[in-house]
Amino acid sequence: MLFRVIYPPLYTTLMESITLPEDMPQIKGYDFNQGLDHKALLQSFLTTGFQASSFGQAVQEVNKMIEKRLEPVQEEHESCDSHTSASGCTIFLGYTSNLISSGVRESIRYLAQHRMVDVIVTTAGGIEEDFIKCLAPTYLGDFSLKGKELRQQGINRIGNLLVPNDNYCKFEDWLMPILDQMVLEQKTEGTHWTPSKMIHRLGKEINNPDSVYYWAYKNDIPVFSPALTDGSLGDMIYFHSYKNPGLLLDIVEDIRRLNSKAVFAKSTGMIILGGGLVKHHIANANLMRNGADFAVFVNTGQEFDGSDSGARPDEAISWGKIRMDASPVKVYADASIVFPLLVAETFAHNANRLIKEKKSD
Amino acid sequence: MLFRVIYPPLYTTLMESITLPEDMPQIKGYDFNQGLDHKALLQSFLTTGFQASSFGQAVQEVNKMIEKRLEPVQEEHESCDSHTSASGCTIFLGYTSNLISSGVRESIRYLAQHRMVDVIVTTAGGIEEDFIKCLAPTYLGDFSLKGKELRQQGINRIGNLLVPNDNYCKFEDWLMPILDQMVLEQKTEGTHWTPSKMIHRLGKEINNPDSVYYWAYKNDIPVFSPALTDGSLGDMIYFHSYKNPGLLLDIVEDIRRLNSKAVFAKSTGMIILGGGLVKHHIANANLMRNGADFAVFVNTGQEFDGSDSGARPDEAISWGKIRMDASPVKVYADASIVFPLLVAETFAHNANRLIKEKKSD
Amino acid sequence: MLFRVIYPPLYTTLMESITLPEDMPQIKGYDFNQGLDHKALLQSFLTTGFQASSFGQAVQEVNKMIEKRLEPVQEEHESCDSHTSASGCTIFLGYTSNLISSGVRESIRYLAQHRMVDVIVTTAGGIEEDFIKCLAPTYLGDFSLKGKELRQQGINRIGNLLVPNDNYCKFEDWLMPILDQMVLEQKTEGTHWTPSKMIHRLGKEINNPDSVYYWAYKNDIPVFSPALTDGSLGDMIYFHSYKNPGLLLDIVEDIRRLNSKAVFAKSTGMIILGGGLVKHHIANANLMRNGADFAVFVNTGQEFDGSDSGARPDEAISWGKIRMDASPVKVYADASIVFPLLVAETFAHNANRLIKEKKSD
Amino acid sequence: MLFRVIYPPLYTTLMESITLPEDMPQIKGYDFNQGLDHKALLQSFLTTGFQASSFGQAVQEVNKMIEKRLEPVQEEHESCDSHTSASGCTIFLGYTSNLISSGVRESIRYLAQHRMVDVIVTTAGGIEEDFIKCLAPTYLGDFSLKGKELRQQGINRIGNLLVPNDNYCKFEDWLMPILDQMVLEQKTEGTHWTPSKMIHRLGKEINNPDSVYYWAYKNDIPVFSPALTDGSLGDMIYFHSYKNPGLLLDIVEDIRRLNSKAVFAKSTGMIILGGGLVKHHIANANLMRNGADFAVFVNTGQEFDGSDSGARPDEAISWGKIRMDASPVKVYADASIVFPLLVAETFAHNANRLIKEKKSD
Description:
In chain A, β8, α13 and β9 form a beta-alpha-beta unit. The longest helix of chain A is centred in the middle third of the chain and has 25 residues, at about 165-190. By secondary structure, the first copy, chain A, is an alpha/beta fold. Chain A starts with about 35 loop residues before the first helix and ends with a helix. Chain A has a domain at about 60-70 and about 85-135 and about 165-355: 3-Layer(aba) Sandwich (Deoxyhypusine Synthase). In chain A, the strands form 2 sheets. A 6-stranded parallel sheet of chain A has the order 6-2-1-7-8-9, sandwiched between helices. Chain A has a 3-stranded antiparallel sheet with strand order 3-5-4. The first copy, chain A, has helices at about 40-45, 50-70, 95-100, 105-115, 125-135, 145-155, 165-190, 195-205, 210-220, 230-245, 250-265, 275-285, 315-320, 335-350, 350-360; strands spanning about 90-95, 120, 140, 155-160, 160-165, 225, 270-275, 295-300, 330. Chains in contact: A-B, A-C, A-D, B-C, B-D, C-D. The interface between A and C is large, with 79 and 79 residues. Chains A, B, C, D: Its EC number is 2.5.1.46. Chains A, B, C, D: Belongs to the deoxyhypusine synthase family.
């Protein structure tokens, strides 16, 4: 904002600007005078600036994962190594529990249904809320409803969502016989239960195409949730353990399985919605391979408090969780708005190619 | 998560849930299996939860403003009161400077061009950056570019945007003769300059259909910016005052004009992007009429620090800035993503009706 | 801001204010003219407003936990129930990994050392970083250091902290023999390992009074970390499992143990720093007793994205995780500033009484 | 977290760490075993990490301003230039309105009373709330009180503060005669009113040592608030203008005065609490001198939305608002907690030297 020839006080001379590269994008938003074309509108985000540009970059980053995924993978003559992934890019999808409670669940279910992702990591709530929604609906409420009144009405609040206590009763009725059966199999067949095996089994039992984990079961997508006891599932396991004790859930076998998915991948991409365990767990697995090749984070966390949740992707590069030559993207936004739009411009946009690929496997 | 009949420890009985109203929306996200229909995707946001639902509610709230606006306004027989607005709903649009630097500018320009809003409030940067963009482009950079290196290159950073010093030099060349002219008119014609009058004049001078304020000038939409000296315009006015002193910018006449816009409106709606002055100034004007009838806030501020920027709409109800029976909406999001989508589903969606209405005025 | 008798436009009459209660605190900050008295300064926070007041309320809430804790617990004649806590208030402390990396660790260690808390919940990093700090220091860096350069230098970044790779090598050297021993004990003695048992053992092995978990071991404070494999410990366990396979870590026994701590407590208090797993896990355990009696959350999360991390305590009341008649407090702040000050005004302030109580056990 | 000699999968070798500089601070928090020494506790923040370290750095930065301020300023032989500041460091203090509503006001008043700062910038509310507090108290409420109920009770909410309507009535009674007098002086004496002159006058009229602006008046500290009409003052001016029209408030003279304060300073320091206008206005004035020498920002804004409020100090370096060789500090925190502590460790800590200096002027 300064000034070349000014009198009297010429305290400063303006630094002459360097010439910016020819191909540097100019900022330009969508012009509604050209009519309402949603596709073009979303494409204009790349040159809109701020988080709109970050969204545009996230679309590009996920589409890079998809292109890599679609690359023909050379048949290893000696396919003796059964670990090696058949996909050109192993995509790790992580999300916090609340997103399954929200309508983002339907986007996630779509990805699992069409085997568009390879590994899922979520928290206990991210598992159980999917099954509960097969049993009874979640409702739209308001962030400011009073806890005491809701408690007296038997209604639980998750942000602006409402879940009646009855839903958890239905879940209990559904789950308890399965827990009995799991204990029986452990005792009689020596089944070694881990969180991922339990989720696989529950996905089979729910037998409902609305369920994310039904499709993960069908498509053999492993789902990791090491703290699976931290939620309603844990409550049930706790009470059940008094009636029918003995169930073991081992987390060592799961960490081997998760890390192997990263280690034996041709290349990897991480798509992580929210922070906490799910973000750290996927990134840590990718450390085992010296870093993911592609990464998109969507969350509202900030780095200033030193949390892993809020850390920028660049922090993960220092650890070797993301490769030094990668171009990771963080979108600072609530995933409920951004993730469905991101799926639209990436996986759904490429649905024909991705689904064909799957079928021709 | 609790349990009806459990042994041994039955410490708690689950409160039975009340029956929720039949018409309470169930949470359900978009199903990409039905194909990629962006319009339907955005409509699904209302039942997606969290900020996606807030976006859906914001769409409804702005559409209420539009319907009210399109209502036939009864001709007052004695149309002696020239103050009274001819529109069924006077829409106040406010935004911070950075949004004009970003591609959100094109959405705002569309609204001004088609006279879809009635009053604009912004900060000094929100004025000057619009004119500067008529003279030279703004570029897409990165949040992590180093300030010292940019300074040495003559490049200024705004988030992930870059503005070369040269742009400000061009602005200076354009503005200085206009300031001379303004001082002359003040001295010879007794023009009483206020920020809104100066902006009107600059909009006329820029004479460029890319400019928001060109259209505000053409369509006689008043633009208020009481701290108009807080930016490059102020720098110029400061230096110019040594060469050619005497310019006055009076803020008293503008507060009369702004408040009158609220007071004499049939009904009012507020659409405010970002916080600080623009949020407070519009809300304070609406206090003069015992509160706005409709309100949408889009920003990333939080209430915990007691800032007006982060305050929820409910705080404004306590002050009488929003009516007690209104249903104001706050979307916690970066406006660069949300505002173009919001315009798409409201003003652009109703473009035919709104533009016809304007023409038939 | 409106006006009783004004002409011409009297659109509004000001609602007369109700008389506020006599004992309602008036806002008044610290007067430095009375000299610099830090204790009085911190006490003035209660009437300073915004988060300063929340801090003051958090001090009151923790001091209520302490008073309850110090109440004489009636001897049960039939003390057959070994589960029942001997303390008047069982305090659950949770914190995210980064706080152990920071100097907040010393505050936490103080609480463990003097048995001022009863149950600890943290993430894998919250365990391992404590041990690593016994082996080599963590340094103060800067949030903006470049990930690529740090990676090339073998330095890992955690916010503005730096941890050299060497520290992890030292950790490996220390841990591997212990893992061998754990596998041996499992095979030969049938030890049933859980995360909390492993942490207890590591606390014994580190044998260093700088360590939080050394004191947790000494004072028999259980430490829960169900996803203990999610970090460097998991990396080690993963690699170790190829050399010396077979280790099991069961999370079912730990959920029984954690929940029992809540269920059998006379009353409970929750002090939770940060979000994610640690916040949910403690609150979920307290659901098993129909809610905690006291609660303080310190974090920077926001509720708008529907995350459990950002949820206000009032959401937990709807779930029965906090009692309906409790007065829980959330402080929106980075715990690195707030928690040492909170410990100062609560536990450290009452150190004489608390430490005496412990000794007379 | 990787591993030197591991079999079978040795995918990665750990980069050896560089040796960090000897004087790099090690992370170490306060040890309460040494007793409760608040001063030492606050000093330990520098090595505590995250925002505690940022606080420690802010203390250092403000103390640098103070040392510079206390340096003997060489007498200019020809002291003809009355503009030149007599202080070694001209300190600009900015804060948003809510901080005057809170108890932070008493810290600010202390700084004004003892002439520890040289220039103040705030918003309209930051002016009027100080005077209103001289007439009637503000109370501590709660963030979740319902707007509709408060409105019906005549109570206004500011975060967790409450201000009765009556307070504004008292303010009206006090202000209206002063406005009459100002119009009279303008008409009879040709007084050219600007926001800073009006604030000076109001500071004189309030004649109350609790008032920040009383002391600003007494100590001749200019207070800038270019959008002075944006609040209750503007409401009053608006209504008053119908009874007694003609008052002018010119913002051009004030921008000259503010910029001159920066331009003619020996060196400058900026202390800015909150964002919006106050942050931009001070930084823009310092652009006129090619950047401030010292800077501390305290706010909760984030850079991701491209707002000036949330911008890191490094963005201001690109603009030349802060010098390239400066070491500016941002503390991400609510100022209600941080600012009183910051004043304690800087201005109050140096009170004897600072107040002596003032007296010997």
